[in-house]
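User: My collaborator sent over this chain with a note saying "see what the structure looks like." That's all I know about it. Can you take a look?
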Amino acid sequence: MTTPNEEKQEQGCPVEGLLKMLSGKWKPQLFRLALDGPLRFNALLRQLKGVNKQSLAIALKEMEEQGILDKQVVQLKPLHIEYTLSDKGKALTTVFRQLETML
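Assistant: Without extra context I'll predict from the sequence alone. Here is the result:
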């Protein structure tokens, strides 16, 4: 039998969940860049010094799976993919901005 305090500890802190979502080498930078507008893969490769294709693809995919980014295929020539903040991602901007100002 668990006590109410143990149940709260098992559920974890909501802030901890947010920090886990944005944890990783590239996710905070991707989130910050997404605040300014749509992201394109090749442009990100040029902007983020030291990133490689595989780690960038993994970070973008994880953020998409977490519901932070939306992926959209743009049917213009040349065909390309853009990543934008989802509604969930936009809801996190206030918290993210507050964390930025604390540093």
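A starting point for your reply to your collaborator: Helices lie at 4-11, 14-21, 27-34, 41-47, 53-65, 87-91, 93-102.
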